[in-house]
Amino acid sequence: MGGFRGSDETLDREIATVEAIARLRLRRVARELRQLDRELRELKRERARRRARADDPVGEGTAVPSEARA
Asked: From CA 30, how far away is CA 22, in angstroms rounded?
């Protein structure tokens, strides 16, 4: 950005405007990051549930005895 040609008052207003825009954008990004973090935690919980189900030996109690296989 080049030199500012306006008055000191205009410069002060411009600074205030840019600061307000920056705060607004930061709030939006922070909100989006919280949402992404929440979605990531949910996905990781789902992955953990699926892994737990895959590791759960559900079928071991219903195994067919070796005499019945013949």
From this structure: 12
